[in-house]
Design goal:
The chain has about 300 residues and is α/β, with parallel strands linked by helices. Helices cover about 25% and strands about 25% of the residues.
Length: about 300
Amino acid sequence: MASRIPRLAALRSFSSISALIGCKSYRQPLFPPRSGLINSAHTHFSKNQSVYKHSSSEIDSTLKDCSEIDHEEFQKWGNGGGTFHKSSSIDPTAVIEIGAVIHAESVVAANVHVGSGSIIGPAVTIGQSTRVGYNVAVTNCTIGDFCVLHSGVCIGQDGFGFFVDEQGKMVKKPQNLNVTIGAHVEIGANTCIDRGSWRDTVIGDHSKIDNLVQIGHNVVIGKNCMLCGQVGIAGSVTIGDYVTMGGRVAIRDHVCIASKVRLAANSCVTKDINEPGDYGGFPAVPIREWRRQVATHRQSLK
């Protein structure tokens, strides 16, 4: 009997709230709105009505694209409870957790594990024994064997490329190519790797990428590279093998970095680095020169 008392109290309070909502006086606002504010808001909406119509058309276009997906072609995967498209090719040993989706014509090799909430886009290939964490979005890419993609990774989305046309409007450049991830690559949480526009974006074998790293379109990273947290690499950069970047290193676009280069944390590379060695500073210079600059600056402050 005691356990029923809170339920009865809740029902009574719910009934009283329902009665208030049904009451006409309750539905009236406590402070009536000012007519001037309403008129100005209405005028503002009328002036920008075309903007709202444009947004609605974009939404309708997106909904149309979504409606073209034949949802009846998706089935439940027995090993994990995820969802897969009939045209995809999935090895029986693969685990697709509940909430994960494998889209059309994708290939998932043996012993792959895809976590809940992850989306494997159309025509994606994932090599054997690769582990995909939670809420990963993968599209327009090929992933090698024995890779690890931690939660929140996004691979294969459009790169950031725009130009101003003759009418002065910002126009998007086509981003139609792919991403190629080598074997034994590990990619940290919430890292983003953009697809290519004039060449594929490539991550070499055995490279390791930390959390919150941004890799722009057309970037080519060699083998056995290590990128620490919050590194940002602009588009069309070429990086050799065995390159190490400390935290928050920034690389400007279209720069080439030779193999066996090490960059100190917070460095910014603004031009090509053609010789192996240690570099640091803004702009990045050979480490001895950078240390000499720092020492001179400290002396000037005394």
